[in-house]
Here is the input.
Amino acid sequence: MSEVIPQPMDKECTVTGNIRMTRERVSVESKKILKNNRTVDVNQLVPIKYKWAWHFYLDACANHWMPTEVNMARDISQWKDPNAFTEAERHVIKRNIGFFSTAETLVGNNIVLSIYKVVDNPECRQYLLRQAFEEAIHVHTFQYIVESLSMDESEMFNMYRENKEIYEKDEFSMSCTDGIVDENIDIYTTEGLQKFIDNLVGFYVVTEGIFFYSGFVLMLSFGRQNRMPGVCEQIQYILRDESIHMNFGIQLINSIIAENPEVWTSDFQAYVVKRIRRAVELEKNYAKECLKFGGILGISEKLLGEYVEYIADRRLEKLGLPKQYNSSNPFPWMSEVIDLKKEKNFFETRVTEYQTGGALEW
Ligand SMILES: [Fe+2]
Ligand SMILES: [Fe+2]
Here is the structure.
C-alpha cells in the first residue's frame, strides 16, 4: 500500500470536504471566528485563541443545575390555594410560564440551525454546544413547572399562537432564524454577514437580553415575598444562565465586527438600533398585557416599561451604539439577584452553591 503523502492545506476547500493530510499545523494566528474554511481543522480546540469563549464554557459548566433538583412542594400548595393569589397575580404567572415554555425552544433551534452552521471557530462552538444543552434544560424547567403545578398543558404550550403579544415577540425572533436557514447565506458578502449579525442581535441581544426580562422581573417579585419559591429559584438559575448567554453573544458580535469592520456601516448600525427599538416596543406591549388586570407587588406597567428601556440602553452601549432612552433602573434588586452566591438566601430556600460566584456583567 502506498504511503499517503501530506499535502499543503487547501485554503479554498470547504468544511464539508475531506480532511487533507498536511504538516502545516494550526496556529493561533490562523484562527478566526468565521470563514476558517480549511485554514483551521474543524475540531481543533487547541491552540485556543479566543480565551473568552473558553472561559464562558468553563463558567457555564461550573453553573450546572437541573430543574428536578428543586423542591416544588410549597409552590404546589400555594398554587392550589384559591386565596393565595389575586386574579392579576395568577394572570401574570400563567402568562409568563406560557411565554417561556415555548420561547426557550426558539433559542435552541437558532443555535443548532443557524449559529453553529456559520460560526466555525472551535472555541466558540464548544460554548455553543454547552449553551444548546442549557436551552434544553430551560425547556425542561417549564415542562417540569407546568406538570408540577398541574397547569393546563395545552393552554401553556399553545399560548404563543393564541396570545398576540407573545406571538409578535416569537415572530420577531423567528424572522431572524428564517433568514439564515432558508437562504443560502454567503457570509463572504457584506450583505450576507450583516444578515448573520442581525440574527445574533435578534437572539443574544433581543430574545435573551430583552424579551425575557419583563418575565424575570415579574416572576422574581413573587420570590421576594417567598411565594412560588421553587419556580423562582429555577428562574433565578435561568436568569444567571441567560446573562452568560447574552454576554457571550455580545462578545461574539463585537469580535465578528472587529474582524470584519466593513460590515459595521452607519446604515447597518442605524438598522440595528431600529430593530432594538422595535423589540422594546414589543416587550412593552407584552408587559402591558401581563399587567392588564392591574400592577402587582409594586410593579406597574410604567415602571416595567422603564426597566425594559433601561436594559435596552445597556445592551446598546455594549454594542457601541448610542443609548436611546436614558431611563433609570426602577428595580435595582434585579442586579443583585443575578449574583446567586451573594444573594444565596434571597428566597430563603435551598440554593445550590455554585463553584463560581463572581458578579456577572449583564
Ligand atoms: Fe434559555
Ligand atoms: Fe439562553
Remarks:
- The longest helix spans residues 87-118.
- The CA atoms of residues 9 and 203 lie 35 Å apart.
- Confidence is low (pLDDT under 50) at residues 1-15, 342-362.
- The two ends are 59 Å apart (CA to CA).
